[in-house]
Amino acid sequence: MNEIKPIKLKQDIKVTELVEQMKNAGFGARKIGIASDIAKKMFSEKNCTVFMGLAGAMVPAGMKQIIIDLIDNKNIDILVTTGANLTHDLIEALGDKHYQCNTWNDEELHQKGYDRIYNVLMKNEVYEKLENFFEQNWEQLNKSKNIKELIETIGNLLPENSNSVLKTCSKNKIPIYCPALTDSGIGLMIWGRIASGKKISIDAFEDMKEIIDTAWTSEKKGIIYIGGGTPKNFIQQSLQFSSGANYGIQITTDSAEGGGSSGAPLEEGKSWGKLKTNAEFVDVKCDATIALPLIFST
Amino acid sequence: MNEIKPIKLKQDIKVTELVEQMKNAGFGARKIGIASDIAKKMFSEKNCTVFMGLAGAMVPAGMKQIIIDLIDNKNIDILVTTGANLTHDLIEALGDKHYQCNTWNDEELHQKGYDRIYNVLMKNEVYEKLENFFEQNWEQLNKSKNIKELIETIGNLLPENSNSVLKTCSKNKIPIYCPALTDSGIGLMIWGRIASGKKISIDAFEDMKEIIDTAWTSEKKGIIYIGGGTPKNFIQQSLQFSSGANYGIQITTDSAEGGGSSGAPLEEGKSWGKLKTNAEFVDVKCDATIALPLIFST
Amino acid sequence: MNEIKPIKLKQDIKVTELVEQMKNAGFGARKIGIASDIAKKMFSEKNCTVFMGLAGAMVPAGMKQIIIDLIDNKNIDILVTTGANLTHDLIEALGDKHYQCNTWNDEELHQKGYDRIYNVLMKNEVYEKLENFFEQNWEQLNKSKNIKELIETIGNLLPENSNSVLKTCSKNKIPIYCPALTDSGIGLMIWGRIASGKKISIDAFEDMKEIIDTAWTSEKKGIIYIGGGTPKNFIQQSLQFSSGANYGIQITTDSAEGGGSSGAPLEEGKSWGKLKTNAEFVDVKCDATIALPLIFST
Amino acid sequence: MNEIKPIKLKQDIKVTELVEQMKNAGFGARKIGIASDIAKKMFSEKNCTVFMGLAGAMVPAGMKQIIIDLIDNKNIDILVTTGANLTHDLIEALGDKHYQCNTWNDEELHQKGYDRIYNVLMKNEVYEKLENFFEQNWEQLNKSKNIKELIETIGNLLPENSNSVLKTCSKNKIPIYCPALTDSGIGLMIWGRIASGKKISIDAFEDMKEIIDTAWTSEKKGIIYIGGGTPKNFIQQSLQFSSGANYGIQITTDSAEGGGSSGAPLEEGKSWGKLKTNAEFVDVKCDATIALPLIFST
Predict the structure, then answer these.
(1) Enclosing H/E stretch for A208
(2) What one-character DSSP code corresponds to residue B2?
(3) Is residue B10 helix, strand or coil?
(4) HEC-encoded secondary structure of chain C
(5) Torsion of CA A231, A236, A241, A247, to 10 degrees
(6) N or C: at which end does chain D have fewer Cβ atoms within 10 angstroms?
């Protein structure tokens, strides 16, 4: 049985040193340490396919570079995310920004043309550049036959030096799945084109085949869930009837007792066969904007 | 300024009497009371279109009859839900059950063939009846061109006396939207048919047109969000650039501070124009299985 | 294995009927049902001493009548609570009120002389009547030798028809323990007298002897924790090295992962010997103002 | 309006560099950055008295060294904590340890003599050394007239090189207040002596005078609340009717909606006059074992 060792902060302590110490502390700190270890394992095993489910407005909150670097470093093999994250990533790729706010009055923000995401703001006028992007590139975009292709095409269309999740995935040939793309700004843009009489035919089910194939044929599987929702559920779904995940990290503040998928501890996946009986896994109950930089520092 | 009046329980007190009293108590109790009032208002206004976003495994948790009755009573005009809820509803419609468990060992459950959803179990063998249903009815199902039609067809195929959300919506001509149907058992069934060479062509974006049209053309709008996720986000999305919702009820245990859409207070929607400046709304922070029967009792 | 049975609301359904149905639903609803059953058991067993730990501002939130009725019905044998609850109870007993607010500006409230407790307000001027009460009754109050006696004396001093927890306990000879009375308005009043040169000598440890004796000599023990904090911890402490509690109900929204006593599931008490191995118990994760009227309806 | 800047992890990034970057991110990350800045301000202002309220089992979780270093660096002027933290600190000072566990069976732990605090264990036999300590030092301990003195005496009795909060405070003449000392192992030890006929007379209210004097006479006040409970409430209480705190940091995972003091945002204190209208403050919703090392790194 290992002793708890008090965390000792020293001048100029590195994040990796702190996380190393956290492994020997208690409560959430230890889970950060364990998650860091599990991440290293799943990233270093050559035959381990890593699925990341990314929900929550991580791009507006300044987490995109961490995701970009994980992809550039070939740590993530499959990204499943929300339409919101992709939309905000595209907005930044097109030159717009997100802004800080620490107090707010939503009626006033509305009048001034700002949309609020907790303590982050976006100008409502970003939709103009989005509109232009979809209008100008429609002939290429409308050739996509499924959501993955559509997203990949968006990535391909962005300038080579675009510092975005979309571009980085397209460069690295990492597939992005987004089962509920329709509930996002990108969805709205597609709808806008359709409403104006343009044609596009995106099959709703086609992406399933590929991700299930990947899940069923990968020798080992690692899962990283940031924030639950559809991205987690889509990956979990793919793992059902597979041999189950070998490694798992979940970062969420949702609680188990409500019974929703987002808050369900990874352990629950064992009953479904989505997680291997002998898997190494950890549930980190923490704001992802705090946990991510700790877990993925090296 | 209204006084707090202590809640007085009396022998045989009715739920409606308790909820009436809750309006004059504090903390979450008052919010239950306020939500009940707002529900009555949005249900009674003839020109108010009511959108319900239903996430969380509400059917396995025994909440389906409350939803069914709301629909049968013409209180809900649009239902947006998760593939999980529809799958569990279909499973029950096909004759299978969900079960109670108060303690659990997930490895053992896996061996015994049970899938766990917090303190609710489902036999893994339910997938057989699901398979049969999709196999036998494929010729009718594969004619659907969008997700709404596919779901409606499933509802139509169920026996007339089927006590299910799917059947009740199909009988009452209430559209069910499910943007992320792919991350569910129903999605898996479709995928299974496709994997075996069968054809179906479901457009991913088509449903957007209809729900956005409804949101933009309805004189008044009421929103009821149970549990956040894609259902909430899809409705919120439709309301953007509309005149905004007039009434709102949100029931969730997710917290605002994490920045995700599920925990975002309704107030935040004002900045986006999704909620009217003068809307009547309330955020109920409560397990939906406890809040629903209180709010919707009459 | 018991089936989940969907909750069916009918016209004029009674709270007890709803709670009975909740037992066969899932997630938090079932826990409400289980808690109601456990409460009935611990209340009906003659040789079972029931300890209630009451934290959170339950009196300002309109929950006092439920507590009063439980005491009047001889359901609670020992009450441990916070100084805040006793202070607010005394404030109401002296004729002041609490008020509802649904939106707030704390700076404005401060200027207008209102103190806020989430969505409940109290006039700051209540301290005047409190001052008078302590000033006028000092000769009787200062004879108390421990906190329990001091609280009992306050109860005795209140008019016979006073509808308060303090009076009801004093009438029913139910001891109220309040280990941290100093962090409350009543504490401030005592301090005020001492600061003006008056004398009182309240022993900090004396109450421990009595509650530990009760815990150690009671044949059976039932525990009801509303909101954690010092009240829970003081009872848990008393149970350590006893034979352990036979019945337990915990109502809190705090989570286990933070490691604090308030959010610790009752199960954890088994390792300490505070809860019997074969105890019947349930953790209800719910706003207490919603859970209390459901669990304690009869 | 400041832009959100994505956090960029680089090889060997220091904790202080990460926290600096967090200030320009969103959600909880930004709050960590803000808290770090506010801490620096309140620590560097010469005429600012810093009150720390420390709840939650921070010592068992390996956080004691961070507290010790803050005290040794003269950053904290007043410490208010729980009996549990002091008991666990004393247990370690007497040579015992806490242990890590990642899965548990509470019945088994009970049989093996381990007490569980979420994912931290303590041997039940630690009470023997505690007993000895109180038995052997009773003649010095029983001279204390109030809780502060009793705690200070314990600190004085520990060996000079004892790496403990108790010793560090006694060396640095930092007062420790613990209004609810009775609900802890130390309380049990005192009770044990009293039960065996020994005498001690600790006044319950005496400490109030001193902390209120400090709060009322300090030119500026900074408050740091870790985990709510009685420690927070005791400090808040002292600030009422003072000029209010100038700086505030709160770290908790409790939520505001339940209405309890622990989850109440600092802002609420403005209505009571406990927080200055123009105070600089931040509420960090995070597991304290993760937030503390980030906020207090230098």
Answers:
(1) helix A206-217
(2) P
(3) coil
(4) CCECCCCCCCCCCEHHHHHHHHCCCCHHHHHHHHHHHHHHHHHHCCCEEEEEEECCCCCCCCCHHHHHHHHHCCCCCEEEECHHHHHHHHHHHCCCCEEECCCCCHHHHHHHCEEEECCEEEECCHHHHHHHHHHHCHHHHCCCCEHHHHHHHHHHHCCCCCCCHHHHHHHCCCCEECCCCCCCHHHHHHHHHHHCCCCCCCECCHHHHHHHHHHHHCCEEEEEEECCHHHHHHHHHHHCCCCCEEEEEEECCCCHHHCCCCCCCCCHHHHHCCEEEEEEEEEECCCHHHHHHHHCCC
(5) 120
(6) N
- Can you read off the two tokens belonging to residue B183? 């991350």
Which position has the token pair 């207008």? C112
Q: Which residues does chain C have with pLDDT short of 70?
A: none
Task: Out of D26, D28, D257, name the one closest to residue B285 (CB).
Answer: D257
**Would you call D257 and B26 a contact, using CB atoms and an 8 Å cutoff?**
no
Give the distance from CA D18 to its chain's centroid.
25
CB B27 to CB C98 under 8 A? no
d(CA C166, CA D278): 38
One-letter amino acid of B72? D
C-alpha R_g of chain C: 20
Chains with 3+ CB–CB pairs under 8 A to A are B, C, D
Residues whose CB is less than 8 angstroms from the CB of residue C220 and which lie 6 or more positions away in sequence, other chains included: C45, C47, C48, C49, C246, C247
Contact D247, D280 (CB under 8 A): yes
A257 Cβ under 8 Å from any chain C Cβ: yes
User: Any idea what the Cα angle at residue B159 is, between residues B157 and B164, rounded to 5°?
Assistant: 90
pLDDT at residue D298 tops 90: no
3-state secondary structure of B99: strand
The pLDDT of residue A298 is: 86
Q: Both tokens of residue D107?
A: 């019945």
Give Cα separations from D174 to C18, D152, D165 (angstroms): 55, 9, 10
Distance CA B182, CA B151 (A): 12
| pTM > 0.95 | yes
* CA Rg value for chain D: 20
Residues of B with Cβ-Cβ distance to C14 under 8 angstroms = 12-15
Chains that touch B (3 or more CB pairs under 8 A): A, C, D
- With an 8 Å Cβ cutoff, are B29 and C61 in contact? yes
- Under DSSP, is residue B27 helix (H, G, I), strand (E, B) or coil? helix
Q: Does A151 touch chain B (CB under 8 A)?
A: no
Determine how β-strand A120-123 pairs with β-strand A114-117: antiparallel
Residues B165 and A157: their CA atoms lie apart, in Å, by: 43
Instruction: Express each pLDDT in D92-123 by its tens digit.
Output: 999 999 999 999 999 999 999 999 999 999 99
Is beta strand C120-123 parallel, antiparallel or unpaired with respect to C114-117? antiparallel
Both tokens assigned to D157: 């009795």
Q: Confirm if C250 and C282 have CB atoms less than 8 A apart.
A: yes
State which residue of chain D sits closest to C195, comparing Cα positions.
D209
Pairing of strands D98-100, A176-177: unpaired
List pLDDT tens digits, range D186-227: 999 999 999 999 999 999 999 999 999 999 999 999 999 999
Overall size of chain C counted in residues: 298
pLDDT tens for chain B, 298 residues long, are 999 999 999 999 999 999 999 999 999 999 999 999 999 999 999 999 999 999 999 999 999 999 999 999 999 999 999 999 999 999 999 999 999 999 999 999 999 999 999 999 999 999 999 999 999 999 999 999 999 999 999 999 999 999 999 999 999 999 999 999 999 999 999 999 999 999 999 999 999 999 999 999 999 999 999 999 999 999 999 999 899 999 999 999 999 999 999 999 999 999 999 999 999 999 999 999 999 999 999 8
Say whether A28 and C257 touch across the interface (CB within 8 A). Answer: yes
Cα dihedral B213, B215, B216, B220 sign: positive
